[in-house]
């Protein structure tokens, strides 16, 4: 099953991302496209229009990943799936959301199972794997930013409104590069964060909602 790895960047590409991409296990038949602009929404829509094959894997150049991340995500027969990714600044909350409150604000998770595929309400597009049938069902432009929502949350709302599901594979993890790489890890009974600064620093992380209670 062929598909497209879509990379978007601004003016700069982090060297850690370039190294991670070079060492990544690319599936047979995958095409790599790269869009570069300060217009993130334009970059995202350009990827959609240029994609080939059955899936689109979205990467920003401020991420690092294990060599087998894409093959892991492709194993799931779901519409949209993301790896577990954290914000790159304190308090390093997960970029996945369980629901919207009465004011329409997106609410993050406070507890999370150690393993498994979790149905979620919305997520950032970091490492997001989107099947072609989902993109074909959405009107162009697929990605927009309006109503106080960024392009990621607007896209997730479109996906939900079209009747598709969004999932997070908590076993598949994506590092987020800021002044350091922020990785979610499970240590025994608790979630923690690895802050890769040469010497690894580990700090606690707030837990997320149980998988069975997360809305589709």
Give a summary of the structure in a few sentences.
This protein is an alpha+beta fold and 216 residues long.
Description:
The strands form 2 sheets. Strands 1, 2, 3, 4, 5, 8, 10, 11, 12, 13 and 14 form an 11-stranded mixed sheet that branches. Strands 7-6-9 form a 3-stranded antiparallel sheet. The chain has helices spanning 15-23, 40-50, 69-74, 132-137, 151-161, and strands at residues 3-9, 30-36, 55-60, 63-65, 80-85, 96-100, 106-108, 117-120, 122-123, 129-131, 166-177, 181-187, 190-197, 199-204. It has a single domain (3-213), classed as Spore Coat Polysaccharide Biosynthesis Protein SpsA, Chain A (Alpha-Beta Complex), CATH 3.90.550. It contains 5 helices and 14 strands. It is globular, with a radius of gyration of 16 Å. The chain has 216 residues and is of the alpha+beta class. 37% of the residues are buried. Strand 1, helix 1 and strand 2 form a beta-alpha-beta unit. It starts with a strand and ends in a 12-residue tail after the last strand. The longest helix has 11 residues, at 40-50.
Class based on secondary structure composition and strand pairing: alpha+beta
Strands, total number? 14
Question: What gyration radius follows from the Cα positions, in whole Å?
Answer: 16 Å
Order of helices and strands: EHEHEEHEEEEEEHHEEEE
Query: What percentage of residues falls in helices of 4 or more residues?
Result: 10-25%
Please tell me what the overall shape is. globular
How many alpha or pi helices?
5
Overall mean pLDDT stands at 87
| Low-pLDDT stretches | 208-216
| Largest beta-sheet details | 11 strands, mixed
Q: Which range does the strand content fall in?
A: 35-45%
* Overall number of structural domains: 1
CATH architecture: Alpha-Beta Complex
């Amino acid at each position: 099953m062929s598909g497209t790895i879509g990379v978007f960047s601004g003016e700069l590409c982090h060297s850690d991302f370039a190294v991670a991409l070079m060492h990544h296990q690319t599936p047979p038949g995958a095409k790599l496209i790269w869009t570069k602009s300060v217009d993130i929404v334009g970059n995202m829509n350009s990827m959609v229009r240029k994609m080939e094959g059955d899936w689109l894997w979205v990467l920003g150049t401020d991420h690092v990943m294990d060599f087998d991340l894409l093959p892991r995500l492709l194993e799931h027969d779901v519409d949209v799936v993301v790896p577990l990714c954290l914000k790159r600044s304190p308090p390093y909350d997960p970029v996945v959301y369980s629901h919207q409150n009465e004011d329409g604000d997106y609410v993050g998770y406070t507890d999370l199972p150690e393993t498994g595929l979790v149905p979620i309400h919305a997520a950032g597009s970091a490492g997001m794997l989107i099947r072609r049938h989902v993109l074909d069902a959405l009107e162009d432009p697929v990605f927009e930013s309006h109503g106080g929502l960024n392009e990621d949350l607007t896209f997730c709302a479109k996906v939900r409104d079209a009747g598709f599901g969004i999932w997070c594979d908590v076993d598949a993890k994506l590092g987020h590069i800021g002044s350091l790489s922020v990785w979610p890890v499970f240590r025994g009974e608790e979630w923690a964060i690895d802050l890769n600064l040469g010497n690894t620093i580990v700090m606690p992380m707030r837990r997320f909602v149980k998988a069975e209670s997360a809305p589709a």
